[in-house]
Amino acid sequence: MTSAMLSTSLRLCKHISPSRHLHKSVAMASKVLTMETLNPHVKTMEYAVRGPIVARAGAIEKELKEGAKKPFDKVIRANIGDCHACGQPPITFLRQVVALCTYPPLLESSDFPADAKDRAERILAGCKGRSIGSYSDSAGVEVIRRDIASYIEKRDGGVKCDFNNVFMSTGASDGIKAILNLMISHSPATPTGVMIPIPQYPLYTATASEYGLHPVPYYLNESNKWGLDISELQRAIDAQRAHCTPRALVVINPGNPTGQVLSRENIEGVIKFAKKEKLFILADEVYQHNVYASGSSFFSFKKVLSELGPDYADLELASFMSTSKGYMGECGYRGGYCEVINMDPEVRGQMLKSLSAKLCPSVSGQAAMEVVVNPPRPDEPSYESFVKERDQVLGDLKLKGRLTTETLNSMEGMSCNEVMGAMYAFPQIHMPQKAIDEAKAKGTKPDTMYCFQLLEETGICVVSGSGFGQREGTYHFRMTILPTVDDLKSLLAKLKAFHVGFMARYK
Amino acid sequence: MTSAMLSTSLRLCKHISPSRHLHKSVAMASKVLTMETLNPHVKTMEYAVRGPIVARAGAIEKELKEGAKKPFDKVIRANIGDCHACGQPPITFLRQVVALCTYPPLLESSDFPADAKDRAERILAGCKGRSIGSYSDSAGVEVIRRDIASYIEKRDGGVKCDFNNVFMSTGASDGIKAILNLMISHSPATPTGVMIPIPQYPLYTATASEYGLHPVPYYLNESNKWGLDISELQRAIDAQRAHCTPRALVVINPGNPTGQVLSRENIEGVIKFAKKEKLFILADEVYQHNVYASGSSFFSFKKVLSELGPDYADLELASFMSTSKGYMGECGYRGGYCEVINMDPEVRGQMLKSLSAKLCPSVSGQAAMEVVVNPPRPDEPSYESFVKERDQVLGDLKLKGRLTTETLNSMEGMSCNEVMGAMYAFPQIHMPQKAIDEAKAKGTKPDTMYCFQLLEETGICVVSGSGFGQREGTYHFRMTILPTVDDLKSLLAKLKAFHVGFMARYK
């Protein structure tokens, strides 16, 4: 954390509790839990997607409410993949099913279609006492796990999926943390190394900090559509081997924050590398429904693995999925699952035991996941309206991705790869030296300075590239493509005007 | 874990994946994640409430489904406080509110009462994009946190509660873990000591194992209604001081698994002890609505603390609450909150940062929590039916608690304290020496042997005392009082017959 970030964060604390802060010097003496006794891993942990820039955005919203005058009327949050917050409407069928599970007297209502009632009955029959208010098995409701397994088989063209390998989680994050938790070594001399892409979704470095794992950063290739170079994987692991025992390789596909979609060939190369280096692959595939680039398709790591022949048949892999992304965008439900492949059965037993202490993931989130993997079929009454809603969301995202990259690339001193998938653009700012010098003088990072200025001048909230990681001497930010088409056009126009001014200011 | 437990657990793994297990010897050689490389804290962690006895209960259910002949028709799960699973119906108002939030077109329906619509509108107005599918702030939806603060103020007779001190969580468990996570020391020479009651809810020892915290066990006094003796707290901390830095004291009130309700005087003594020893109090108060004993009332640690005068005004305290217990019993929603008092503001900022990497707790769970803290008021249309439903549940629980202890105490070789609160009985089995010897010969614990025999002979699933902790040489089990009155009567009759047989067999 830079000192500028820290001071922002402290300002926030003061803002939250001014009265207590006044007494700090008196009270501190007798506190049990202080910055000195606090878990050091918590202190070092950073999570930019909800970091100081976002905290400042919240503070500005409060200032606006209290009547402060700003050069804008509202904060536009393009910092986080929060679809409904940006005005994307829920998929009707999903909400109907969850509402029926929530309040079963609605099963008698003629306002709900038969297929939604079928799904709800299916879920309720799998819940103890026919209530989503009872705990499920720690791995999730069995019938939902079975439907997830069917979905995976269909997605992968028939590659078998055993529902016993599917564990539901509180969002994908919780599943990712559950797998990484198994890998902690607790031996400071030989920490477990985890290969993490740079740029990355900051959950990975945050979890590495929290768990005392050793990050092994590898760079994605910005000059080749943010592709994944096997030679770079090799360089990265060789560079860190002396400092850790590398055991895991994280791949995010489609990419966050980069929006790339890996080719089948690229995935094959990654799998061969993991085999050679004895690495457990964590495939973050939460954007598997979000592919827009023509000629691109989503290939799951599992499918590619299964087609590489018997030499690869025992490679350990965990794949993660979520209700939060795709075209459903149900972030608030915190639904997710993890499929583990080739995990040692005793280890799997231990993982199940460790999950059991959390009791179970939210059952309403599990119900939402049921609809993600088992949406209306062509012979069902809701199919037509479902397809219309789905295609509207995905069509808009494709359009918005193109609009975003075109506009960004039209700006002098800015370049951006195509948004092939996911829901983010990660443009590079070709930062003027004068801006770099000013940031250095202020003790902040140039891209962070850019983002704070953008926020203060336009109300647009994006996250600086340093929160995700980037090559030394390059500067980026991540913005979502989620605002409605009209809002996005207005956002991009404001961004362009700001950027022109920024470049002129530091010329 | 005893070897018997382990072998049961391994049987379960085999059962889950026979085909993979066959290839184990071949595959093991090349695995990354094995029992040797697995996080050792995961290995040592135990969680009895969902442990081997419960796994066996699940296996028996499958055997019954497949036509196996048993001396019973179905498994009766009295192992976990899972209200709806035992047939307790949901509170209508809660489900109406959550259904309205889930599917807002229902706000137009005349089938839903105005007060339920008001609550739903209140929640939706607090959600970004008016959708429970958007992420909330990491600490929870602000309006719900404000309503929680009002609830706490009212509960405590006006003691002030700042909503900024309220953090919502995924069930109470997640909040408890978030606080304990802050206390990890990572310095093997001086681990943080956490005082844990024995018997305890096993989340605490499981989390201590997972986080490398040093448990400082203190015994509750079975001969005094499972009360909390201050002299025992002193003995316990003195005994462990050389092995750790004691920083936290866990109190569960009303008690789980013990069902005691602490007197106000007893709580005062605990607070004075915590002050003297510089301990952060974790008050697990999830059963605050479940008090049945005449003359007993729930006193929150916060209220008692606030009335002890200025010497105690800065004592650090975290109190936990849940949607899962009380009369709502909505376990599946995984709703919960934590109120922190007197936490160092910088530490609180760090906690907020660490919560932010989880994004947010399930928003539908937060909506359920809104109803827990803000149920229908006397002037509202749903009040009468709500009160009827609430009183039915609490009245039944009181009756079932009495029925359970009376029956248990009527058995020779069994004794049980009154179920003053919560939803469990924790009887002592006065174990015959012959049974103790047999268990020893079989490498299992006598109470575990008792519970396995009970399960195999009657289908009743309870958890042995060793899963919660108990004084050396005493043997208990925990059973819930949740089955319907008729089911509970039948359960108790079967249990009595089994117990008589068991005592005769080992006389």
From TrEMBL, chains A, B:
EC category: transferase
Annotated Pfam families: Aminotran_1_2
Enzyme Commission (EC) number: 2.6.1.2
Family to which this protein belongs: Belongs to the class-I pyridoxal-phosphate-dependent aminotransferase family. Alanine aminotransferase subfamily.
Swiss-Prot/TrEMBL cofactor(s): pyridoxal 5'-phosphate
Name of the protein this chain belongs to: alanine transaminase
Pathway(s) annotated for this protein in UniProt: Amino-acid degradation; L-alanine degradation via transaminase pathway; pyruvate from L-alanine: step 1/1
Residue span(s) of domain Aminotransferase class I/classII large: 97-493
Record text on subunit structure and interactions: Homodimer.
Gene3D superfamilies associated with the record: 1.10.287.1970, Aspartate Aminotransferase, domain 1, Type I PLP-dependent aspartate aminotransferase-like (Major domain)
Superkingdom field: Eukaryota
Keyword Transferase: yes
Catalytic activities: L-alanine + 2-oxoglutarate = pyruvate + L-glutamate
GO process terms (BP): L-alanine catabolic process
GO molecular function terms listed in the Swiss-Prot or TrEMBL record: L-alanine:2-oxoglutarate aminotransferase activity; pyridoxal phosphate binding
Cited InterPro entries: ALAT1/2-like, Aminotransferase_I/II_large, PyrdxlP-dep_Trfase, PyrdxlP-dep_Trfase_major, PyrdxlP-dep_Trfase_small
Keywords of the record: Aminotransferase, Pyridoxal phosphate, Transferase
Signal peptide positions on this chain: none
